[in-house]
Design goal:
By secondary structure, the chain is mainly alpha-helical. The protein has helices at residues 29-35, 56-83, 91-113, 119-128, 136-158, 175-197, 207-226, 232-242, 250-270, 276-283. The chain has a domain at 54-283: Glycerol uptake facilitator protein, CATH 1.20.1080.10. 47% of the residues lie in helices and 0% in strands.
Length: 374
């Protein structure tokens, strides 16, 4: 039996080291540790991304709207050209316009959904491990809806003009040749997309220029063979609305085959996917890096031109007029706030603080130094 040492009994309350850890609200502890591991490969984090689907409708709408704009330009160029005689738009403009539209869409809403705009891109991102498979069906449905709505609008506004707006094999080109051609072009496109999205490149929003440049270049030399679609929904959407299914399977199989080849090339170049940068590029950063609300401190419009840069809730000091009284922001009587009776308005004796003679330190006549009279 051991004796207890004399002295006060230690407190029974647990110290800081013995306190219970904070309760995990939505994820178990080991998952939370994996989520907090900055710079770690996304193998643990990826399977828990986007469990909160509260923003999913914004991502889906982003894909619908972006694909609508893309098909509006890609199919609209040919339909508008045919409506006005076939000579108003050059071949160069017809293939460069969709490329510029894709670049613009990536820049202005790529952070919302990743700006896939293309089933082949969604398929490639999922196969690469950067995008959850469970979200692919909703993206494909949104892209299809956007393409159909754009073609319906074009039909209503400029009418149907034969095969204008469709992507078809060129004269003397078989459907098999068109399919292989589309596969080759799409391999290059998806390789550019996966490469610029990877953490190895770290190009960020400059990916828009790489993707847009490739689409323009591929269209300039490849469109006479197959139309250089590289996008199944860009071809099948107008085909559905306009009722022309010529060689439709070539524009479905070709881009999908090209996407698979591009994923293999990406593995050879950079190893497995699923890293943080690639996943953020594929999925967007909505809900992880930002949420849809006002960013920054609210800054209302200034009451007067002199209020630029002032905090919105700045309190007035004694002797200073308050804003919003219908007069100049620095004056209570419509004159300069620094000139009341030839003295500074912020002084209780009609003088500039720090002056003992009631006058402006740099003036001997009690007036504003830069002015001879009020």
């Amino acid at each position: 039996m051991t004796s207890q040492p004399a002295g006060p009994t230690p407190s029974a309350s647990p110290g800081p080291s013995a306190q219970a850890p904070p309760a995990q609200v939505s994820t178990p502890g080991h998952i939370d540790i994996a989520l907090r591991s900055f710079g770690q490969p996304n193998s643990a984090r990826r399977q828990f991304d986007f469990l909160d689907d509260s923003y999913e409708w914004r991502r889906v709408f982003s894909e619908l709207f972006g694909t609508f704009l893309l098909v509006l330009v890609a199919a609209g160029g040919g339909m508008v050209n045919a409506r006005f005689g076939g000579d108003v738009t050059s071949h160069t403009a017809l293939v460069v316009a969709p490329a510029l539209m894709v670049a613009a869409i990536i820049l202005f809403m790529g952070a919302v959904s990743g700006a896939h705009l293309n089933p082949a891109v969604s398929f490639a991102f999922a196969l690469r491990g950067n995008f959850p498979w469970k979200r692919v069906p909703a993206y494909l449905a949104a892209q299809a809806a956007g393409a159909v709505l754009a073609t319906l609008l074009l039909w209503a506004l400029v009418g149907k003009h034969g095969t204008a707006g469709l992507t078809l094999p060129g004269p003397g080109i078989s459907a098999v040749t068109a399919m292989i051609w589309e596969a080759v072009l799409t391999t290059g496109l998806v390789s550019v997309i996966l490469g610029t999205a990877s953490g190895a490149q770290q190009v960020g929003s400059f990916a828009a220029f790489g993707v847009g440049s490739y689409i323009a270049l591929a269209g300039l030399w490849g469109s006479p063979v197959s139309g250089a679609s590289m996008n199944p929904i860009r071809s099948l959407g107008p085909a559905l609305v306009l009722g022309d299914w010529t060689a439709w399977w070539a524009y479905l199989a070709g881009p999908l085959a090209g996407a698979i080849v591009a994923v293999g090339i990406a593995y050879i170049l950079r190893g497995p996917g699923g890293g943080i940068h690639g996943s953020e590029a594929a999925q967007g950063t909505l809900g992880t890096r930002w949420i849809p609300e006002r960013i920054g401190t609210p800054m209302p419009a200034p009451v007067s031109p002199h209020d630029h840069g002032r905090p919105p809730a700045q309190s007035s000091q004694a002797g200073e007029p308050r804003l919003g009284d219908g007069s100049d922001a620095r004056s209570g009587d419509g004159s300069d706030a620094r000139s009341g009776e030839g003295s500074d308005a912020g002084s209780g004796e009609g003088s500039k603080p720090g002056s003992g003679d009631g006058t402006e330190p740099r003036s001997g006549d009690g007036s504003e130094p830069s002015s001879g009279m009020t």
